Amino acid sequence: MAEKLRQERALNDIELEQALAKKSLDRNMFWRLLPLLKQVWKQVTTVILLEAVLVGVIFIRPWFLREVIDNGFIQTAQGILLNTPLLTWMSIGMAVSWIVRFGISGLSQYLSGSAAVHILNSLRVQVFAHLQHLSMRYFDQTKAGRIISRADRDIDALEPLLIQGPPELLSALLRFVVAAVALWWISPKLLLALASIVPALFAATWLFKRISEKNWAKVAEARARFTAHLVETVSGVRIIKQTVTEADNAHRYRSLLHDFNTTLIKGNIRTSWFLPFTQVLSTVGMALLLGTGALGIVEQELTVGQIAQSLFYVQLFLGPLQELNDLFERYSTGASSAQRIFLLLDTEPEIIDPPQPKLPPVSGHVAFNNVHFKYNPDAAKLVIQGLNLEIPPGQVLAIVGPTGHGKSTIVQLLTRFYEVNEGEVLVDGVNVKDYQQTLLRRKVGLVLQDNVLFSGSVLDNLRLAAPEASDDTLIQAVKELGADEILERLPKGYYTEVGPLGAFLSHGQRQLVCIVRAYLADPAILVLDEATSAVDLHTERKIQNAFRRLSEGRTAIIIAHRLSTIRDADAIAVIRDGQIVEKGLHNELIALHGHYSGLYKAYQEASEASALPDAGRTTVA
Ligand SMILES: Nc1ncnc2c1ncn2[C@@H]1O[C@H](COP(=O)(O)OP(=O)(O)OP(=O)(O)O)[C@@H](O)[C@H]1O
Fold it and tell me: Which SMART domains match (predicted)?
């Protein structure tokens, strides 16, 4: 059942992406990629010039050969004599042409390579910056693996298209045009004989391009699926181990890999006929040219040297057309990757700043007026329904209620991670929509259940809130909150590495670091989403004291799971089905014999049953 559900969820995600991808399939990727070349126009221009010189060098060689055949050997009465000066100059010319060719191709490749690095890195930066601006809903709907696949592999896939592609295309076109002119120069009949196969070659190339584009889009999609699964596995590895679903998970990965392989193989089979087909066509072209050339010799219109020279041009004329095979394949891979990148870049953040934002809040007065909200616009049920709540500046308000009834959602709306569907959220009497998001969020300090720390030391993490602060200032803040005893016990004290996402620290230690971080940021409003997992009594007390100290003189919202911790709160609000059903002081609410007293009773019973001070939680009620 779980597997089925997982598959269904994944499928919905994929379907959503495919539907979006189809929308932008019509766009011409090439024209959207072109502006990227603007920043490296100097390198691009030099490469174009170098390629033009290279083509000139290539074309001079058949002329050397023709001169050697037609004039290198002189027929005299004594027999055939060598035209030594001509042969010497032609040999030198041939050697120089090879040396120049190697030198120019090396330089051209170096320049296009450095341009590539420049363009791809700036695209990476653009994608990264854009990702940070996207609203939470985008991350709710899109798997992390898909995003990584775009920001990393899809950008890599542009390299052959953007970098080697243009010089090769240019070189191919130049060789094709110059070969055509040279053949025309020798004899228009020779050119016409060879050109008779071009329509068939173009038709085949066009067909190939269409098939190839579709194939590469499928391959990229299949690849994104297994990457997404890999990322999910890495981030959920604990749960997978705990639920002993490694085998199921590996099976799912294998089946996604199998889909990828099948798509890749099918794609390769479909496109593999192109090369042999073009080879057959060029053989036919060569036969036609030789036939026409033979007639020309018989009719004394052409010399043997000219035919030998024209044979070189056959490859220079048809070769570029065959190279289109490779170029189109590259274009297809790159275009499908570009499409996925543009799909990401075209995604607009749902939540944007107002054109003229108000000054950031100071006093921390919070009001929710008739707020309605649901995460998914298509969902039938509202998560928050007609919520009215006022928190005067400096008040400590505790929010309690059963799990999944909207407690954390209230905070998400206060920080404008999501936009309300109806009603308004006011901070200091101003709608949160009228503040600049960054300034609003700086004024709301969050200490959440699943606190995230970033790789680096404890001090590095504290410094996120106060970038200019010295080590001593940071440590002083830790001491002021009474968190020093616990943090100094870490292996290297404040210099201990916290590991990826803070994995080397315990839950309680992470929470203390976050409380100090919030203290350093000096917000007007504080939110403590109390941890549901147990910490020892000593740490718990330290956390509570630190939070109490932190909330002095600020508005504080405590999402409480341990009812014993909030008895002293200035007000307690009980939330049920996204509405405030009761609000008052602890004693008042107990006396009401309503929801709160029921929750409290259940909490006390659970505490007594397990004989642990933190055993009972409202979330189990
Ligand atoms: N990002 C999201 N996308 C869609 N639905 C969500 C999202 N976050 C929460 N929900 C849903 O909204 C409802 C309220 O969730 P919320 O996290 O506010 O509950 P809560 O009361 O804080 O629960 P808990 O006590 O377990 O923390 C739940 O039904 C939850 O499934």
Answer: AAA (SM00382)
CA of 579 to the centre of ligand 1 (A): 14
Average pLDDT over every residue of 520-540: 78
Q: Whose CA is nearest to atom 13 of ligand 1?
A: 404
Tally of CA atoms within 13 A in the half-sphere of 416 that contains its CB: 26
pLDDT at position 1 is 36
Q: Tell me: the pLDDT tens digits for 407-445?
A: 989 999 999 999 999 999 999 999 999 999 988 988 898
Q: Find the mean pLDDT for residues 201-206.
A: 78
Q: Is the CB of 408 under 6 A from ligand 1?
A: yes
Residue 391 scores a pLDDT above 90: yes
The yes-or-no verdict on residue 11 having pLDDT over 70 is: no
Best mutation site among 371, 372, 389, 408 for ligand 1 pocket (most ligand atoms within 8 Å of CB): 408
Contacts of 366 (CB under 8 A, 6+ apart): 389, 390, 391, 414, 425, 426, 427, 525, 555, 557
Angle, in degrees to the nearest 10, between helices 304-346 and 188-195:
40
- For residue 49, the SS3 value is helix
Strand-pair partners of 79: 76
| List of domains in the chain | 27-346 (1.20.1560.10), 447-522 (3.40.50.300)
Cα–Cα dist 346/380, whole Å: 29
Q: Integer distance in angstroms from the first to the last C-alpha of the chain?
A: 27
What string of DSSP letters covers 413-443? HHTTSS--SEEEEEETTEEGGGB-HHHHHHT
**DSSP string over 236-274:** THHHHHHTT-HHHHHHHHHHHHHHHHHHHHHHHHHHHTH
Beta-carbon contacts of 374 under 8 Å, excluding residues fewer than 6 positions away, are 381, 382, 383, 384, 421
With a 6 Å cutoff on the Cβ, whether 140 touches ligand 1 is yes
Summary mean pLDDT of the chain: 82
Nearest residue (by CA) to ligand 1, atom 2, is 375
Dist. CA 375 → ligand 1 center (Å): 9
Pocket test residue of 409, 530, 558 for ligand 1, highest count of atoms within 8 A of CB: 409
DSSP 8-state secondary structure symbol assigned to residue 367 = E
| DSSP H/E element including 182 | helix 165-186
Helix (H, G, I), strand (E, B) or coil at 74: strand
Say what the pLDDT of residue 611 is.
55
**Spatial contact of 564 and 533, defined as CB atoms under 8 Å apart:** no
- Tell me the Cα Rg of the chain: 36
Residue 334 has which token pair?
Answer: 């790159």
C-alpha 29/C-alpha 39 separation (Å) is 18
Length of the chain: 621
With a cut of 0.85, is the ipTM above it? yes
Ligand 1, atom nearest to 401 Cα = 21
